[in-house]
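Reply to dn_fold:

You asked what the input looked like. This is it:
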Amino acid sequence: MSPGRALPLAGLTVVALEQAVAAPFATRQLADLGARVIKVERPGSGDFARGFDTTVHGQASYFVWLNRGKESIELDVKSADGTAVLAALLRRADVLVQNLAPGAAERLGLGAAELRARHPRLITCSISGYGADGPYRHKKAYDLLVQCEAGLLAVTGTPEEPAKAGISVADIAAGMYAYSGVLTALWVKQRMRPATADPAVPSICTTIVSSRRTRVAQLLVIIPTAPPSSLRSACDVSSTSTS
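and this is what came back:
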């Protein structure tokens, strides 16, 4: 990038209700490309990754690595005032990324259907342990647990001594899928917005992507006109590789 030249995502606003690794990794990538990322943290303690260690000048190494270039706001999203502030942020946002506990987004009024009704231009990325349906949909997931379930410990270790990967590979893979999904959603949204489009009749492109059986990132893309068949097939695909 030439000095003084705008970054590719300059002017894009991302609201992130995030913690730990997966979602922060995705939004950090967006921030690196110039997006304004507003990280919403819980009052008092903030993102619990802040407490992982004190390696970087008193701050946690993981937190510094995953949250560079972002803005942060402490917000109680369960309170009336916090809800009002979040609603104001979302009215101006282009993307919402969240990896709250299963069911939390819906309880906060941030489910897909409600967001589509209130913010038809908003791209929504929800990262969860096991997706929005299926028998494990209400369960939380952790990187080591998913590495075990996916058989990764057997791949990196031996039959006698299974071993986990040295990094949070499941979380990082999920974050990268979410990041690439958001970029794809932005491209599709821009491509499907001709001058003659009727914004009152949006269509929805839903893509579920996963890394083996790690985390699942679900992208809901609001598009102001129906995509052509060549793009509809790409948007409607459901890819869930299992171990």
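The first helix runs from residue 22 to 32.
Hope that clears it up.
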